[in-house]
Amino acid sequence: MPPGISDLRLAVVSPFVDRRHGTERALTSLLEQLSGEFHCEIHLYAERVDDLALSADGDPLPSTGSITWHTVPAVPGPHIFKFLFWMTANTILRWWHRVSRGLRFELVLSPGINCLDADVVVVHAVFCRLRELARQESMSGSRGSSHARGLHRRLYYFVLTLLERIVYSNRKTALAAVSQRTAGLLAQYFHRNDVAVIPNGIDAVQFSVPARLAMRQGARFRRKLSKEELVLLLIGNDWRAKGVPEVLAAMAKIPDLPLRLIVVGSDVATSFQQEAERLRVADRCRWESPRSDVIDFFAAADMYVSPSKEDSFGLPVAEAMACGLPVITSRFAGVSELIQNEIDGYVLSDPSNIDGLAEILRRLYDAPDLRVRIGEAAATAAQQWTWERNAVRTWELLQTVAAKRAVKAS
User: Fold this and answer.
1) Residues contacting residue 37 through CB under 8 Å, at least 6 positions apart
2) At what angle do helices 387-409 and 22-36 cross, to 10 degrees?
3) What is the structure's pLDDT at 3?
């Protein structure tokens, strides 16, 4: 290891950081590891930060092992406008700190497209693929959003895919993918065959069978769930891509089973609620907002179901497994690479196969012992997926990139 890079000073660029959303929860865990275990001096440029121990902006600059938040201003308005302002504002603020404070960084790290000058990007989503999927759904007439919302989504995806081509095609920018599937998409769309694959981890203390069981009674009581009801859970944004319509359709196929569905995320629920009404399952669905104590959702559930059309990883699937829940996902979710089908989870080859999904749900309902066996195997498998392992591999990548920069600068 070249001298002078054992303790890195990093600029980390992310619009917000919290534990309510998958990508941001992953970033929070990574930053805690990089600062605590690898003594990085982290300067976090973000509009909002929750659930993370911080040093105050303006304090004397620490040498190692701390996280300082530099508040990036935000503006109201449509998401596309807020995003473009964010891209500009965080770049200007970092430039100003370099000029006014002499604050320089060995590396700039970004989870996704947040700036044009990142040295390392951890790719949690490939918008070229999501845009392609949205086009297919639009042509089939399956997307239920309003015309204005659909137009805004298309414009947002256009901007993101343009920025992806600029950033991801630049071989000076090191890329880390959260799954082999994501690495394959980066090779397909941007001809990047040099991508490091670093899967997400799980917090085995927060997400565990004992933690889930300890909260189960209260979580179900607050939601007025009976012992007889089998509760399905799906967490995430872009509910169409995550497979909410398919779950609703599968529930409608088996009306004799006492299934309940909890859907968690920030999507606009109106079109999905209308679809649930049409399928006559609306009275069995709950639509909830994200929260920091994600374990509360897992505690209320009996199974996790997300027949994704596209998901770079699928962190809630892994967390559900750590909690001992049987999971159903699809081969289009990166986390499926870690699952042994019908041993510690179920991986659908075709997420649009409603009959196949309904059959698995009936099988698991009819066989409580099978649910227990699959859940126990899932919890055992998930114990290997730690944030410590994720941080070690990320640290190795950061060291490699910093060493190359040091050689070029010398």
Assistant:
1) 388, 391
2) 70
3) 38
Separation in Å, CA 80 to CA 25, 97, 149, 310:
23, 26, 11, 22
The answer to whether 30 and 390 are in contact (CB under 8 A) is yes
pLDDT score at 151: 82
Q: Compute the Cα dihedral for 363, 369, 370, 376 and give only its sign.
A: positive
CA angle 89, 69, 106 (to 5 degrees): 80
Sign of the Cα pseudo-torsion (336, 337, 339, 342, in order):
positive
Handedness of CA 250, 251, 257, 259 (dihedral sign): positive
Question: 42 near 34, Cβ under 8 Å?
Answer: yes
User: Phi, psi at residue 105, to the nearest 5°?
Assistant: -125, 145
Q: How many alpha carbons fall within 13 Å on the CB side of residue 121?
A: 28
Instruction: pLDDT band for 2, please (50, 70, 90 cuts).
Output: very low
In the CATH hierarchy, which top-level class contains the domain 209-382? alpha beta
pLDDT tens digits, one per residue of 108-152 = 999 999 999 999 999 999 999 999 988 887 776 655 556 677 787
Per the structure block, which two tokens stand in for 175? 């890329």
- Structure tokens given for 55: 């040093």
Q: Which superfamily does 9-201+386-409 belong to?
A: Glycogen Phosphorylase B; (3.40.50.2000)
Helix axes 244-253, 354-366, angle to 10 degrees: 60
Q: Give percent above pLDDT 70 in the chain.
A: 94
- Sequential DSSP letters for 338-398: G--BTTTBEEES-TT-HHHHHHHHHHHHH-HHHHHHHHHHHHHHHTT-BHHHHHHHHHHHH
Provide the sign of the torsion angle of the four alpha carbons 324, 330, 333, 338, taken in this order: positive
Q: Which of 162, 296, 157 is CA-nearest to residue 223? A: 296
Hey, where are the domains in the chain? 9-201+386-409, 209-382
**62 vs 43: CA distance, rounded Å:** 10
